[in-house]
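[step 3/7] fold_predict: job queued, chain A
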Amino acid sequence: MVSSLLRRLPKVSTRGLLHAEQRLAERYADLVRLAYLVLPPALGRHRRVLLAHALVQRTLPAAAPGVPAPRAARDDGPPMSRSLYVPVLREVLALSRRPPLWPGRVPPPRMLLPRLPVVWGLRLSPRAGGADELALSRALSELSATARAAFILLRVERLTEAETRGVLEAAGFGGVEAELRAALDLDAVLDSGAAGILASEEFDPCTVRARPSDLLRRRRRVHLAGIAVLVALITVVTLVVSDGAPTVRAGAGAHRASRPAPAVDDVVRVAPGAWAATSRVDFTAWPARGRLVRDRALLRRALTAWAGDGHATPVSRSAGTAAGPPLDAPHLLYAGPVGGGTVVLLYDGQRLARYREAAGGGGRSLVLARVDDADVTTAAAVALDTSGERVRYLLAPWVAASWTRDLMRPDTPARALVVDGDGVTAPVPLFGPGPRPGAGAGCGSRTVLQLRSSSRIAEHHAFLLAGLGELTAVHLTYTPLPGRGAPARQPREATGPAALLAWARTACAVGLPHGPGVKAVNVWDFAEQDLPDGAGPGVWTCARADTWRGPGEVAVALRTARAGTGEQARIVARARATGACGRFGQHIVVHANWRSPKGAWYVLAAGSRAVRGLIVTGDVTAGTDGATLAVRAAARARTAVRARLAGDLRPIDLSAGRSG
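[step 4/7] structure written:
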C-alpha cells in the first residue's frame, strides 16, 4: 500500500524513497487513527474506517517528501510533524463542513460521495471495547470535529495548547478558541488512562473485523435492483417511441417512499433458555412470549406499521431515537392482550418498537425507543401498557423475583409484585411527578420496581427501576461518600440502607426528568462537612441523569441532619448537557449561600474527592486546605470559588449560574 503511494511522489533518490517509505509505514496507523477519531460518529464505524484510509492515502503523497526523522532521533517535538497530520486534518475537517441550511442529522454532502476503497458485501469495524471505551466515545461525539481534532492532538499526540492551535490554523481553520476550550474542558475531567483507552482496538481502524452484510436482504436487493433497471429501460423505450410528451397522473409522487416491511417469516424468535447460555444479556436474549406470537395477521400489521403504512398508524419516539423501518430482521419479544388492547413488542438491535391496537378494532399506535446500549438492568423491564398513572411491565426472562417499594419510605419493606406466566406484571404506579419547588415531607410517594436477577446471572443481584411513562424504565444507582485514602468508588445498586436513605431525601427535590430518553440516574454523595452553628453534618449530593443518546444533566443538593425527619434536600445547582458527576467528570466543585438554624448566613463550598484546597473570593474571602469550607457572609453575598487539585486536574464548577 505504501509502495503504491510512493510511485506518485516527485523523483527522488532511491535512498530517499526507502527512507520516506519507512517513515510512512511507521506513521500510517497513527494518521488513520487520527482521521477516524475526528470523523463524525454519525457516519457509522464501517464508513469511518473506509473514509479514514481513503483520506490518508490521498494526502500522504503530497506530504511524503517532508517526512521527518524518527522521534527517537530527536530530543523534542511531537511524534508526527505538521507535514504529515496537517494535510490529513485539512481534508477531514473540510469534509465535516456543512453548507448553510444543510440538515444537522445528515452527513455533509462530500461525505455522501463514494470514495475508494469500496468494500462490497462486507462490513468493517474496529473491535468492540468495554464500558470505558463506550463512555469516552460518547464524550467525543458531543464535540465538534475541530474540537475532537484538538482533543486528539492534546491527549494522544501530547502537543501543547499553542502547538495544537498552530496545527489547526495550518490546516486552514482559524478562530478555533471555542473548539480548543471545549477540548481542554474535556481533557481536564479525564483521568490519565484516557490516552490508553484511545490507543485500544476500539479506536483502531487498522485492526478491524470483517463481517458480511445481510446476505438474504442483499440478494433481495439485487433482484429488486435488476427489476428496477428493467422497468427503467422499458419506460425509456416507451417514451422514445411514443408520440408527444407523456402525461403524469396528478399526485403520483405524493406517496412517501418507504422500505418494504419485513416478512413475518423473517422475524427472529429466540429460544426460551437462550439468556442463560450467552454472555450478552440484553434484549437479544429475550424469548418470544405472549398468547398471540403465532398470529401472523397481527404480526404483519405490526411490521407494516413500523415500516411505514402511509401515516395510518401514529408514531411517537423517545428523544434521540431514529425514525424509519427496522434496521434488520426484528426480534419478536411479545405478542398478546394487555389491559384494554393487544400489544406486539419488537426489537431490531438498536430500537424497541411497541405496536398497540385498542380493543374492538380501535385506534393503533407505534412507540419507538432507543436501547442500543442495554444491559442486564436496563433491559430488565419494558412498559407494555400505560393507563393513567399506572403501567404494566414485561419483565426480562432472567428476573427471578420482583417487588415494588416506595422510595420515600426507606424503612418500609418492599411488597411482592404479581407477575403472570409470560412475565407481565400487575399495574404499577409511575414514579411520580417531577420536582416541586419547596417539596417537603408531603411530596407524596415514589414507587419503583425492585428486581432480583436469577442466580445464573449473578448471585444476590437486586436493582431498582423507575417508570417515567416511557417504553423503558430508568435504572437507579448510588455512589457512597468517598473513603478516606481509598480509591474512587463506583456506582452501585441503590438497594442498601445508605442508598435508600439518600434516595429518600433527594428523590422529590431532585426529581427525574420526564420525556428526554433517560437511561439511568445515579445519586453520588461526593462530600460531607460539619455545618456551622450546631447544624450537624451536611452531605453534598450530585444526581446525574444519563440519556440513551449520551448527554446528561445533573442536580446538586445539600441535605442536613434535619433531613432525617423527612425533609427533602435543598437543590443548590443544576446543569444540562454536561459530563459532570459521571465517568469523565469525577472532579467537581460547588458553592452556595446557606442559612443556619440560628438565622446566620454563610457561604458553603465543597469539592469532590481529589480536591486539596478551596478559595472563596468576592464579597468575602476565605480559604482552606480541605475539600469543604464555610465562611460567614451576608444573605446575598456574591462569591466565586476556586479549587486546587492534585496534578494538572481541573474541576467542573457546578455553582448556580455557571455552565457545567
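[step 5/7] annotate
The radius of gyration is 29 Å.
The longest helix spans residues 215-241.
exit 0
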